[in-house]
Amino acid sequence: FFSPLPRDSQVRIMETTVANAEKYFGLFCTLMAAYTRKTAKLRDKSDLLVKQILDYANTENPELRSTMKRFAEELAKVQDYRQAEVERLEMKVVEPLKRYGVQLKQMRTEIKRFNSVRNNEIKQLEKLERLRQKSPSDRHTLSQAESNVHKASVDASRTTQQLEETIDEFQKQKLTDIQKIFLDFVTVEMVFHAKALEVYSSAFQILTDYDLERDMEDFRAKLHSASGNYDARPVSSTNPSSSLPWSSSSQSIHSTPQRQEESEYDAEEHRLQDFSDPEEAPTR
Amino acid sequence: FFSPLPRDSQVRIMETTVANAEKYFGLFCTLMAAYTRKTAKLRDKSDLLVKQILDYANTENPELRSTMKRFAEELAKVQDYRQAEVERLEMKVVEPLKRYGVQLKQMRTEIKRFNSVRNNEIKQLEKLERLRQKSPSDRHTLSQAESNVHKASVDASRTTQQLEETIDEFQKQKLTDIQKIFLDFVTVEMVFHAKALEVYSSAFQILTDYDLERDMEDFRAKLHSASGNYDARPVSSTNPSSSLPWSSSSQSIHSTPQRQEESEYDAEEHRLQDFSDPEEAPTR
């Protein structure tokens, strides 16, 4: 007269729901953490690129030097936004998914408790069935067994009520969480892409504004000043048989004019820095 | 009376220019290739995420199932754009930088040729100097040596003229290339970020439109239909002592209503596909 079947089906739905959540939230957590790590690696490679563009800038004439430095600054800003993306993904996506794993373990404990109450009801029912077949005339024992079944059934009914509420609460929380976590993911990504687009637009303008002809004029002037420089050093220092014609010793010859040029570039850089807006980029 | 010094300075500027270009274009090539690889890895992780979200969708009720499927489709579109980004970076940034390495090797050969002509001039000058000290009275030998110096100097002058043109050409090409390669890089990135922003905006809308209450109603109906389902199967199949309570056998119970639900979702998906614009996303 008591059927454990409906409760069993509910527990099964519950168990499937929790098992699926454990499986997929676990996978989402692993993949989102991997996605975040790969993003961090992309930032690392870009940081190296920024560094090398700045080094390269220092080997070039004023015009390209200034263009490359300003371009590298924009590229560095993108990496600052990428770093912010990494931190927000950790905080708003990976961490909530991790915390969810803890919640799911608590749900498993709850289900175990429901199962033990439900199993007790089945055990009492089976005991009663055995007694009815073995000793159908033992009224006292049968009556006690019937009372035990009744008690177990009342317990099961009460926990079933609790189970229904817990399932409902759990499902609602799960649906809210999955929506929130993915919305946060999308928001973090949107903010990054919008900022990156903005900074790259500015980088595009910097590269477009580059005046190649002015740079070529500087280069030609430098070459002609070199060809007009007759009083520099003795013939022996040209070292024509050297296997390293562009060794470091040969660079020192031009140290004085290069230093003069450098101080000119510095002045220009300071002017350029006055026009740039450092507040635009987030700090790491 | 002939000075090799100015030409030497020019060659030195040329050599420094080529050496710097070799160093930095090589570094840029390596770093851009690494950046492209890391981007491809980010795409791979995202592809796995898309796959798992689709798998997860199939374990959920109609409302979340549809939301997750549509969300996964948007996330897949971002990966298609990322794949396009990877291909464009390869074609427009990494390949041109690689080709530049070949051009630089040709420049080194040119410089070697200039150096050998220049060194011949120096050698003839030194020979004349030695002869003047050893045998200042040997008019015939001195005159021949002077003639050799003159010839070598004319050669050097001609190649210096060529060198100046080659330097000019090379520098102009280099400046054009560096501007073009970085402009192409920025353009590829801008296109990707703009497209990603567009797709994520649509993904945001899909997640915001998710009707949690409708999903909860479905879930509650499923639970209550389970608790009212008395004629399903014999008690023995409940197998309460099983260590795997959510084994595959328990899922088959709901196979019939699930299939019905699936065909409903299919109809809904076809309707949704009619509204979407598949031409927007690039194919891999």
TrEMBL record, chains A, B:
Localization: Cell projection, Cilium; Cytoplasm, Cytoskeleton, Microtubule organizing center, Centrosome, Centriole
Residue stretches of biased makeup (Low complexity): 234-255
Main location: other
Ranges of biased composition (kind: Basic and acidic residues): 132-141
GO cellular component: centriole; ciliary basal body; ciliary transition zone
Residue segments, region Disordered: 132-157, 228-284
A GO biological process held by the record: cilium assembly
InterPro entries xref list: AH/BAR_dom_sf, BAR_CBAR1/2, CBAR/FAM92
CDD domains in the cross-refs: BAR_FAM92
Pfam families in alphabetical order: FAM92 (PF06730)
Keywords: Cell projection, Cilium biogenesis/degradation, Cytoplasm, Cytoskeleton
Recorded family membership: Belongs to the CIBAR family.
Protein name (Swiss-Prot/TrEMBL): CBY1 interacting BAR domain containing 2
Gene name of this polypeptide: CIBAR2
